[in-house]
Design a protein that fits this description.
alpha+beta; Alpha-Beta Plaits; 4-stranded antiparallel sheet; two-stranded antiparallel ribbon; Dimeric_a/b-barrel; YCII
Amino acid sequence: MAKYLLLKHYRGAPAAVNDVPMDKWTPEEITAHIQYMNDFARRLEGTGEFVDGQALSPEGTFVRYDGEGRPPVTDGPFAETKDLIAGWMVIDVDSYERAVALAGELSAAPGAGGRPIHEWLELRPFLTEPETTTDCH
């Protein structure tokens, strides 16, 4: 099994086919979208492929270390001007092909007009420890 992170970019990814911003959706369209996401996660829980997932607030701040005894440096928030990740899901699947298939299915979540968004999702494998071999010579 391999873990993959699915990132839902609200801004910063290539444009979706149904590219109507969520703040222009009706309450019913938002409810249908969230229901699709919840049903998808529930189905993957049943197959043992769902690890976790969360929606994210649009507000965010970059933070970095600034030296011993100094407070961290912050830059932001950037809700209107930077890449915006709307949410994420971690899956644990048998193959890259399965991860791609699930990301494609998740990309079809409904948006404006109840039509699939066909949004681009970023699929990132978890970094794993390299396999080590011992030489028995």
